[in-house]
Recover the amino acids of this structure.
């Protein structure tokens, strides 16, 4: 009789051979946070392949316009599994707190490159949820999220906000595809007025506007695209706009899961002769 220390390896080998016999192979579930890597090149409107892995069988990332650093190499990383989206919208959208992403796509610049426009990630994820939403994280760690969407078969797509994305070597942007877990997605931002106009400048000429968003209890953020034309502040849902000088600008407001929205501000001071 063989000693036990020799018998155990032989039994293991026999079990392995038995599992491979009979013309069928058992499918092993993909472990959490399984990763696949690929590469691409930064050129305007290029489509970079997303490495398939497990239930994520295919995918493409369409790049925005490359305004500098064309030809820079990119690393593309995909992962699947139970990876928390950590309340994916830091601004507090109730619909995505504690949700779990089922697939992630990360694009890393290996050399400095600047993109202008929007990234789009499209994947085929077999057996995924029928309703999903997504988050996009830029190179500075800022997060934006999409409303819930319905998958077409196993096809999923996410688009980032349009903007300028300047990535140094080693910096990344990423998408996270997540299953929708609640029905109370933060609704669209709604203004009391979509435009404001001024004929004088200064604090005494300031006007207010309002912003609301259903199913959202977090704070709004507000900024002026040209402080030489108008400045702004917000308290709760009340926006105060103060005209500074002649011209036209936009006041940008961001809330929960919705993309930012803008008020057009025109300042045309009347000159008294």
């Amino acid at each position: 009789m063989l000693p036990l220390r020799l018998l155990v390896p032989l039994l293991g080998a026999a079990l392995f051979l038995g599992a491979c016999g009979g013309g069928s192979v058992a499918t092993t579930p993909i472990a959490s946070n399984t990763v696949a890597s690929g590469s691409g090149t930064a050129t305007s409107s290029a489509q970079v392949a997303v490495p398939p892995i497990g239930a994520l069988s295919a995918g493409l990332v369409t790049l925005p316009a490359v305004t500098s650093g064309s030809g820079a190499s990119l690393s593309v990383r995909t992962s699947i599994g139970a990876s928390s989206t950590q309340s994916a919208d830091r601004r507090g959208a109730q619909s995505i707190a504690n949700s779990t992403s089922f697939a992630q796509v990360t694009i890393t610049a290996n050399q400095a490159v600047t993109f202008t426009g929007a990234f789009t990630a499209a994947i085929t994820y077999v057996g995924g949820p029928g309703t999903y939403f997504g988050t996009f994280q830029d190179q500075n760690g800022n997060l934006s999220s999409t409303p819930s969407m319905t998958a077409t078969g196993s096809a999923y797509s996410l688009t980032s906000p349009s903007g300028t994305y300047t990535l140094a070597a080693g910096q990344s942007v990423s998408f996270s595809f997540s299953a929708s877990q609640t029905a109370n997605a933060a609704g669209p931002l709604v203004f009391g007025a979509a435009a404001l106009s001024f004929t004088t400048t200064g604090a005494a000429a300031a006007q207010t506007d309002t912003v609301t968003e259903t199913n959202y209890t977090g704070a709004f953020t507000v900024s002026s695209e040209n402080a030489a034309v108008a400045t702004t502040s917000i308290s709760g849902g009340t926006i105060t706009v103060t005209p500074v000088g002649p011209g036209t600008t936009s006041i940008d407001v961001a809330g929960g899961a919705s993309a930012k929205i803008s008020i057009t501000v025109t300042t045309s001071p009347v000159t008294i002769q």
Notes: The first helix runs from residue 4 to 20. Residues 124 and 155 are 5 Å apart (CA to CA). Residues 34-179 form one domain.
